[in-house]
Amino acid sequence: MRERLRDHRAPVVIALLSLSLMVVLLIVSGNRSPIGNELNSEPHQDNEGVIVKLPEPRYDSGVSLEQSLLQRRSVRNYTDDHLTLQEVAQLLWAAQGTSDPRGLRTSPSAGAKYPLKAYVVVGNAEDLVPGVYRYDPDEHRLTMTLEGDKRAELADAALSQHFIAEGAVAIVLTAVYERTTLTYGDRGVRYVHMEAGHAAQNVYLQATAMDQGTVAVGAFYDEQVASLLGMPDQEQPLYILPVGRMP
After folding, report:
1. Which pLDDT band, with edges at 50, 70 and 90, does 81 fall under?
2. Of 77, 133, 143, 235, which is least surrounded by CB within 10 A?
3. Shared domain check, 72 and 128
4. How far is CA 91 from the centre of its chain?
5. Are the beta carbons of 200 and 216 closer than 8 angstroms?
6. Distance linking the first and last C-alpha atoms of the chain
């Protein structure tokens, strides 16, 4: 009789042990689902700052490349209209987004070293709190590095070029020269500047295709811009590109 009781209890004990193990695993893992996190596009906080998952970029439109080339101009006058989150995402993807499963980007880079980084200073964009954000090309997302509308301060750092404060956002391209110069020596500096030009032209053409205006600004106080954006010491600012809707 006792042997029969043991036989009946064994499956129950095993089931209880399995259930206990599952509970422990859920507690240790924080009950986090990788799939759920990836699908969630709502802003959330990590150790660095607010994370914003951007909408996927579009890969076609009703505007041809030839039209964008024909219509591209430097624009310094903008309306007070906001940009959508999709438009901000599209501009950043054009500047430095990935366009290949291997991690290759929209602009060419010597040796695929990718020394450039992109920040966006947000003042008037839908679903984005005003602030400074760093763009992550691999994850196609933004990380807030500083909260608050910093467009006027950025304009002051750029020799008081007031139109920078009037764009809905301003994209700032920076460079970590060592990523390229470690391979190519001093000539790598030239390659970095070439790459910055490619990325800036991408922003011009993408903005034009979306009926927006931008202008490449290179006159600014490096240290002031770097301090405003909270850049690491090894980064150097190269370009400021305010973007907004045209009157």
Report:
1. very high
2. 77
3. yes
4. 10
5. yes
6. 92
